[in-house]
Amino acid sequence: MINQCFKLKQSSFVFEGRCADLTGFNNNSELCNSIQSVGEGVFPKSWNNYLKVRDSFDNMYFDQLAFEKQRTMLFPVSAGTEITITKVVHHGWGTDGRYWAIRGDLFIDGQTTEVELPSFSKVHLGPFWLNGKAEGIPQLNSKFLARCQS
Where are the chain's structural domains? Predict the structure, then answer.
């Protein structure tokens, strides 16, 4: 799966998220960029709708831990944007077992932004783009991602 290209099938938001700690230094989670489709789960139906309720949305859905600044959404991303998978990790989460964490690089206007795909409720808001508890390497949910054409 690493270095494979996919395209977003839906417009999405990139936001300051909590993700699996892949370094092992910060217990189980760390701050990172995350992604979710517009209008899915608790996410607003548009960037403009989000901007109207930004403060209340951020306070309600982005838990602020001690000594953290309030996390927020960063920018919208268009359907069709390419993402290349860069990390596939079977991450240990204490007595809860292991969860799959998958990160990729979005390519937007010549810039690269790393995001973690939502895969389990310990750190991500649903719906999930892959099954974080899968026995083997999980399949990416075709509702959210499609392979790039060669």
Answer: 5-147
